[in-house]
Amino acid sequence: MTLPPSSEPTATPEYAPPTRTGDAWLESLRSALGGVLVGQRELVDSLIIGLLTGGHILLEGVPGLAKSLSVSCLSQAVHGSFSRLQFTPDLLPSDLVGTEIYNAKTGEFSVRRGPLFANFILADEVNRAPAKVQSALLEAMQERQVSIGGQTLELPRPFLVLATQNPLEQEGTYPLPEAQLDRFALKVVVDYPNREEELEIMERMARSAPAVELKPVVELSTVMSARDAVDAVHLDERLKEYIVSLVLATRKPEAAGLSELVGRIQYGASPRASIWLALAARAQAYLEGRDYATPGDIKKVAMEVMRHRVVPTYEAEAEGLSADELVARVLEAVQAP
Questions:
Q1: Which terminus of the chain has fewer Cβ atoms in its 10 Å neighbourhood, N or C?
Q2: Which residues, other chains included, contact 302 with Cβ-Cβ below 8 Å and sequence gap of 6+?
Q3: Domains of the chain: which residue ranges?
């Protein structure tokens, strides 16, 4: 459905979301993940947005918040291949992409593909790997291909990197380069559960062998078809202008009336922020059963799209201003259509 020129890009009370064929898989997937993950609806939706847009996701949170479990459950619920990579300081690029093996009988080299050749990659503790490994992962994330012995090999489609990192421990870690952070579509911060959720987690998991295995409920072909539907979600021109205004406000805050942020943002969001705001907003609208996006969709995904792309200055950090707070101020100041 295309909005008439005079309409605001928001839903009216009389509007009933269209029924799209085959969308029952969304609830099946949510239900499957919710059967294991307690109280993490926003995390589940973020994972599905990554699935719908092909965007890699960085999950940050203290240990024990089911970051790795959520990725593992997603890969089990979707009928695709899965690899888990535990990143350590002694990891080598060949441990990810594979290597050439010499066959003494034939006198020829053959390629042995590494665990990166899967639809879903869990990069656990991604910030513990050195620069060469991050470089190999960066090529895979951006180009959807890897290089082995002079050969360029395509990765499976879809290909999704879901990385985790612990914000507390600094010993034995390597800060992710800004160029790599920018390749993550979303950065999701996973918080502690509330009291009721903690009780439910204890009820489900406090046993010697908790059952967390899921059966596949979604085929990869369904996901790829849904991506076409997400691309078709209408994004009004005024919303495109709004997205660009948000991104520009992180680069030149004084032009957006945010003089208090001058000297507090070292680097603003890159053009990838604009791209992913548009894609994620379309996916958010699709999740809510609409074929057009609204300002609310953009606001809902803006923090996860922009928090890792806005770098505070030392002065801002000294004042206790985090990237999240800077983005929140930008969202308050820039007027939505």
A1: N
A2: 246, 277, 327, 331
A3: 20-208+216-228, 233-337
**Mind listing the pLDDT tens digit for each residue in 228-251?**
999 999 999 999 999 999 999 999
The residue whose two tokens read 């612990």 is 166
Provide the phi-psi class of 151: left if phi over 0, else alpha when psi is between -120 and 50, else beta: beta
Cis peptide before 5 (omega within 30 of 0): no
Q: Which two three-digit tokens encode residue 40?
A: 């993490």
Burial class from Cβ neighbours inside 10 Å (0-12, 13-18, 19+) for residue 286 reads buried
10-35: per-residue pLDDT in tens? 443 333 344 444 478 998 998 888 88
The CA distance from 162 to 249, in Å, is 29
Beta-bridge partner residues of 292: 234
What is the distance between the alpha carbons of residues 142 and 13, in angstroms, rounded to a whole number?
41
Residues 326 and 316 sit within 8 Å (Cβ to Cβ): yes
DSSP secondary structure letter of residue 241: H
Report DSSP letters for 10-65, one per residue.
S--TT------TTTHHHHHHHHHHHTTS-S-HHHHHHHHHHHHHT-EEEEE--TTS
Residue pair 169/128 in contact (Cβ under 8 Å)? The answer is no
* Architecture of the domain made up of 233-337: Orthogonal Bundle (1.10)
State the burial class of residue 292 (Cβ atoms within 10 Å of its Cβ: 0-12, 13-18, 19+).
Answer: buried
Task: State the Cα–Cα distance between residues 52 and 140, nearest whole angstrom.
Answer: 19
- What CATH architecture is 20-208+216-228? 3-Layer(aba) Sandwich (3.40)
Amino acid at 124: D
pTM value surpassing 0.90: no
